[in-house]
Automatic annotation (TrEMBL):
Source lineage: Bacteria, Pseudomonadati, Pseudomonadota, Alphaproteobacteria, Rhodobacterales
Provenance organism: Actibacterium naphthalenivorans
Domain of life: Bacteria
Record-linked InterPro entries: DUF2849
Pfam families, sorted: DUF2849
Protein name: Sulfite reductase
């Protein structure tokens, strides 16, 4: 028996600055996970991933990440994705300063 599909978001890294980005329902890339499209269908998830991978001039390393519905949009399920929402941790500027995680 196959496993139940868990909701996903499409995530990647911005090709020019390396920042974590997520794909929105209207085909934009955002730096805020809560704006990402929460995908609840496995076939649709694969189509969205193919779309993301076709944008090699904009992104690198696209993949489907487990997510859950939150009050303000998708939220991470695993530590790795939680960490990626906070941005690089090797310097004291950017997202780390904005959310007070320095």
């Amino acid at each position: 028996m196959s496993r139940k599909f868990t909701p996903k978001v499409v995530t990647a890294n911005d090709l020019l600055d390396g920042d974590t980005i997520w794909l929105t329902e209207d085909d934009r890339w955002t730096r805020h996970m809560h704006e990402a499209e929460l995908i609840e269908d496995e076939a649709h998830a694969q189509i969205r991933l193919i779309f993301a991978e076709s944008q090699q001039s904009r992104i690198v390393g696209a993949y489907l990440a487990d997510a859950k519905a939150g009050p303000n949009g998708p939220e991470p399920v695993h530590f790795r994705e939680t960490f990626r929402t906070r941005g690089p941790s090797n310097y004291a500027h950017g997202k780390q300063v904005e959310i007070g995680n320095v």
